[in-house]
C-alpha cells in the first residue's frame, strides 16, 4: 500500500496541473520526466485507477482510450482536507485547539475563511 | 443471587449516572491534568466492568443458560430439569441480546473511526510536502493556523504553512512537543476507546462527562509537557495565536465553549499550576477504582454462593 503514496501524489499533481483530461500516456510522459528509472505504463494506469476508485479522479471516454481528470481542483482538495481536520472526529481531540468542535461544514468554511484572513493580516505584536 | 443482582443494579446505577457528575465536581482534579486523565479512564473502565458483571450475573441466574452450562460441566449429567426456566431464559436472552448489541455498536463506532482516519490520511497524502526538519511533520499549504496529529508510523503530525509562518521558533517547538506528547501517550487511542464506549452506552451520564473531560484534559496534559520542556511563555503564545483566529465574525455555536477551553488552558499556564510529584501517588491510588469495582463484584458473588 505504502509505496503507492508518492506515485499517487505525482499522478494527482500532473492531473491538477493539466487544464484538460489526460490519457495515461500523457501522464506517463510527465511523471517520467526527470525520473531515473521510468515507470511502466501499467503502473501509472494502476495508480490512476486506484485514485478513481477512491473518488478522487473521474474517467471519461476519449475515443478508444480513457481520459482521467481530477474530481476537484487542488485548492478545493486542500480545503476539503482542512474541513475534514476540523470536523469532530473522536480521536481528533488532539487538534491543537478544538476550535471547531462539531461545527457543520458551512460554519467550518466560514471559520476557515476567517482564519486565513486573520492569519494573513493579524499584527504580530502580542 | 437475587440480592447479588440487586446490588449490582444499584452499583451500576451509581456508576453510570452519579459517579461522573460527582467526579466532575472535584475541582482539585482540574489542577492535576495527568491525574485527572487516569481517574476518568478508571471511571470509564469501572463502568464497563460493572455492566459486564451485571450482564454476566443475569446470564448465570439459575437456572439460566450459563448456570445450567456450569452445572452441566460440573455434573456431566445432562437432561435434568428446573422450574422457572422460561423466566430466566427470557432474562438471559434479553441481557445477552443487549450485551451483543452494545458490543456491536461500540465495535462499529471504532471501525468507523479507523476508516475515517485512513480516508483523511489518504487525502492529506496527496497534497502534503515532507520537510527535512522537523522530520515527523506533513506540511499542507494553507494560510490557516492548524496543527494536529494523525497517528501512524511516519510523519504523524500535520501542520499548515500558515502555522509555520505565524509561530516563532519557540512556539513551534512547543506546539510540536504538545503534539508529540499526544502521540507518545496514545491520547488518540484513549479518546477513540471512550468514544466507542459512549456510542455503546449513550444513556450514561458518567461516560458522557468522561468523554467531555478527557478531550479537554489530554490537551492540558500536552500543554504541561510542552511547558515543562520549553517554558510556559511559548505555549501561551501559541495558544494566544490560535485564539486570535478562533472568533470569526459570523460566530459559531461551538466557539463559546472552545474559546472558554482555550482561555482555561492559557489561565492554567499563566498561574503556573504545575503538577507536583504528589500527583503520581494520587494517580496510582485513584486508578485502583476499577480494581475496587472488581473486588466488590467478586466479594458479592462469593458471599452469595
From TrEMBL, chain A:
Which GO annotations describe the biological process of this protein?
negative regulation of DNA-templated transcription
List the InterPro entries: BlaI_family, WH-like_DNA-bd_sf, WH_DNA-bd_sf
In this record, what's one Pfam family?
Answer: Penicillinase_R
| Keywords (A to Z) from UniProt | DNA-binding, Transcription, Transcription regulation
Q: Which GO terms describe its molecular function?
A: DNA binding
Does the record's keyword annotation contain DNA-binding?
yes
Has keyword Transcription? yes
Check the record and name the Gene3D superfamilies matching this protein: 6.10.140.850, Winged helix-like DNA-binding domain superfamily/Winged helix DNA-binding domain
Q: Which SUPFAM superfamilies match?
A: Winged helix' DNA-binding domain (SSF46785)
What is the name of this protein?
BlaI/MecI/CopY family transcriptional regulator
Name its species: Nonomuraea turkmeniaca
Taxon lineage:
Bacteria, Bacillati, Actinomycetota, Actinomycetes, Streptosporangiales
From TrEMBL, chain B:
Any one Gene Ontology MF annotation carried by this entry is: metal ion binding
GO BP term (any one): proteolysis
Biological source species:
Nonomuraea turkmeniaca
CDD domains associated with the record: M56_BlaR1_MecR1_like
InterPro entries documented for this protein: Beta-lactam_resp_regulator, Peptidase_M48
Q: How is the cofactor bound?
A: Binds 1 zinc ion per subunit.
Question: What family, per the record?
Answer: Belongs to the peptidase M48 family.
User: Keywords for this entry?
Assistant: Hydrolase, Membrane, Metal-binding, Metalloprotease, Protease, Transmembrane, Transmembrane helix, Zinc
The domain of life for this entry's organism is Bacteria
UniProt keyword Protease present: yes
What name does the UniProt record give this protein?
Answer: M56 family metallopeptidase
The record ties this protein, via Pfam families, to: Peptidase_M48
What's the cofactor? Zn(2+)
Name all Peptidase M48 domain ranges.
Answer: 126-198
* Membrane-crossing residue ranges in chain numbering: 6-23, 35-61, 86-108, 278-301
